[in-house]
Specification:
Elements lengths: L5 E5 L3 H13 L3 E5 L2 H8 L6 E4 L8 H10 L8 E5 L4 H9 L4 E4 L4 H18 L4 E4 L2 E4 L4 E4 L2 E3 L3 H12 L5 E2 H9 L7 H15 L6 E4 L3 E4 L5
Parallel strand pairs: 1-2, 1-3, 3-4, 4-5
Antiparallel strand pairs: 6-7, 7-8, 8-9, 10-12, 11-12
């Protein structure tokens, strides 16, 4: 069975959101609904969607601000965004596209139109961004092939090193304790302890060369991957 595409719907009109959720789920999508930006960003830290549907007029963070934040974040910047809004003036649409929208739908609209546009946007992205690939700067991970390239050149990693690197990249700028890394590796059946985590991190840094400096040590706690200067 094909994996369902995950849709994050940020819409403060609960009645409209219920209708859209029902129709999208009937078409095979997995939908998570949020009424404001705070709820949305908390969930983004845990699981990433395949596409975000944003109302513009929201309490707290408005949709334009949310889109700009997504486009400025290295982990979120490639997630497609569709605006769904009552703001139909030309300048509103221009502002939306300038904020990073891939499409802009004005209310009222039909569920069939929304679903067609979602599929069109997702199809474009899937052609550009093949599944199970993670790219950051000049580093690329291909999960299907268990391969890593840096500046287009292959990096020979063990399976454990690959999984640790992928885990850190998926949680960029977050501190991952040694216990979290150990539990993640246990899920793959890998027996490991604090000391061997440190050894694998050292090997990862060595193999990544200058890029390895972005794997930061948080003394007494664990590690995080960050491009930010510290």
């Amino acid at each position: 069975m094909d994996k369902k595409d995950i849709v994050y719907l940020v819409e403060d009109d609960v009645d409209l959101a219920e209708i859209l959720t029902f129709n999208l789920e009937n078409e095979g999508f997995e939908v998570k609904h949020f009424t404001n930006g705070n709820e949305f960003f908390k969930t983004m830290e845990q699981t990433l969607p395949n596409i975000v549907i944003l109302d513009i007029m929201l309490p707290g963070y408005d949709g334009v601000r949310i889109a700009k934040i997504l486009r400025q974040n290295v982990l979120y910047k490639d997630i497609p965004i569709i605006f769904l809004t009552a703001k139909s003036e030309e300048e509103d649409k221009i502002e939306g596209f300038n904020a990073g929208a891939d499409d802009y739908i004005t209310k009222p609209f039909s569920s069939k139109e929304l679903i067609a546009r979602i599929r069109a946007v997702l199809n474009r992205y899937k052609k550009i961004n093949p599944a199970n690939k993670l790219k950051l700067e000049n580093l690329e991970l291909d999960e299907d092939k268990m391969e890593v390239t840096l500046d287009g050149k292959p990096i020979n990693l063990t399976k454990t090193e690959f999984r640790i690197l992928k885990y850190l990249l998926e949680n960029i700028d977050k501190i991952m304790t040694r216990d979290k890394i150990i539990n993640m590796l246990w899920s793959y059946g890998t027996d490991i302890n604090d000391r061997t985590v440190d050894v694998h991190i050292k090997h990862l840094r060595d193999k990544l060369g200058d890029f390895g400096r972005y794997i930061r040590t948080i003394r007494g706690v664990g590690y995080k991957f960050s491009l930010k200067d510290e």
